[in-house]
Write a structure and sequence with these properties.
Blueprint (H helix, E strand, L loop, with lengths): L8 H5 L3 H7 L38 H9 L33 H11 L7 H7 L8 H9 L6 H9 L14 E4 L5 E4 L4 H9 L10
Antiparallel strand pairs: 1-2
Length: 210
């Protein structure tokens, strides 16, 4: 509203698509250009999440609904089974092609330019947790930035709300690792040291929100 010089919805409706796009804050908060969404974070650069509360499908902000439900014996909104996952090197496909030509010196400079903004030993400690032997710099970068595959078992979950693999239990009891061959391996604490590093250094707020 501010950058479009409008103070009413009617004013915005009168703008062209180009004017609205130009007024959209892409490089300042809420930074919807999301330049570092698939990269290592830089301190104090956040992406503002949006949810549309339309009064019909979404009657109020979700956090308010959850807080209201917490004290009720009879839930207005039934619990829904939820499957959360991520993929190693998930952003490899969309990484800037120039990154593939990096050497280790370029990677270290990038890590220092991003994680170094948080101060302390974060950049050094993060680098130490991601082995380099036998790997390329772009692989290490995408491993770091996506740490923050699912076939038949996921299809079954979508149909029934349950997982057919008995060893894959509800979080936080276990985390399932789905391999390229379709096999399922269960870990009690997957990437525990890496997760602890990100969390103890205050990077939870920089997690993906899209």
């Amino acid at each position: 509203m501010r950058s479009s010089r409008c103070d009413t919805a009617e004013c915005l409706y009168g703008k062209s698509a180009t004017e609205v796009n130009t007024a959209t804050p892409l490089t300042e908060y809420p930074s919807w250009g999301a330049d570092d969404l698939l990269d290592l974070p830089t301190k104090n650069v956040f992406i503002g999440a949006i949810i549309v509360v339309d009064g019909a499908l979404v009657s109020a902000p979700p956090l308010e609904l959850w807080e209201k439900e917490e004290g009720l014996k009879v839930k207005t909104y039934p619990d829904v089974p939820l499957l959360i996952g991520t993929m190693a090197q998930e952003n490899d496909e969309v990484t800037d092609p120039a990154v593939r030509a990096w050497d280790w010196k370029a990677l270290d400079a990038h890590i220092n330019a991003t994680l170094g903004t948080f101060g302390g030993d974060l950049a050094h400690n993060a680098s130490a947790l991601y082995p380099r032997a036998g790997r390329e710099p772009d692989y290490v970068l995408t491993s770091m930035s996506s740490d923050r595959t699912m076939r038949d078992v996921v299809a079954e979950f979508a149909r029934t709300g349950k997982i057919g693999e008995p060893q894959w239990r509800t979080f936080p009891e276990s985390t399932a690792l789905l391999g390229a061959s379709g096999g399922v391996e269960v870990a009690r604490h997957y990437h525990a040291k890496q997760c602890a590093l990100w969390l103890t250094n205050g990077l939870f707020s920089y997690a993906w929100i899209n």
